[in-house]
Amino acid sequence: MKRTWGVAGGCAFQDAFVTAATVTAGAHIAQEPHHNFSVWNDYRFHSRIGAGLGDLRRADRFGAIDNTVTPPGYRRADAAAGDLHSPDGTVLSLVRVQDPFNHGP
């Protein structure tokens, strides 16, 4: 890879459930997807000018603690571009577009 190109990614498996409470033990936690995946690419065209693209995917999950409703999983794409850093390291300007392809929930 080049010094001007950066990639970051993440993957998670979560098996969150109730062990004991006023609801049914063993029920899955609401709004907690079992699988998450994300990746972000960014490229520096110049020492200060850059752009990036990212992708986020989430598996379906239960909508309530009683596990009767299951909202579907989804995918979301993000994009960003801008004048990224001043000489002291602060962000000067950044334009970010979240889900330009309308894949999200």
Can you give a write-up of this model?
- The chain has 105 residues and is mainly β.
- It has one domain (5-98).
- It has no helices and five strands.
- Strands 1-2-3-4-5 form a five-stranded antiparallel β-sheet, with no helix packed on it.
- A hairpin with a 4-residue loop joins β2 (35-44) and β3 (49-58).
- The protein is elongated, with a radius of gyration of 19 Å.
- The mean pLDDT is 80.
Beta-strand content: 35-45%
Mean pLDDT: 80
Helix content: under 10%
For the terminal residues, how far apart are their CA atoms? Answer: 33 Å
* Shape designation: elongated
Radius of gyration: 19 Å
DSSP helical segment count: 0
Q: What strand order characterises the main sheet?
A: 1-2-3-4-5
Number of domains: 1
Task: List the helices and strands in order.
Answer: EEEEE
Structure classification: mainly beta
Number of strands: 5
**pLDDT < 50 stretches:** none
Keywords:
105 residues; 5 strands; 0% helix
Which SSEs are present, and which pair or pack?
Layout: E1 5-13, E2 35-44, E3 49-58, E4 74-83, E5 93-98
Give a quick rundown of the structure.
The chain has 105 residues and is mainly beta.
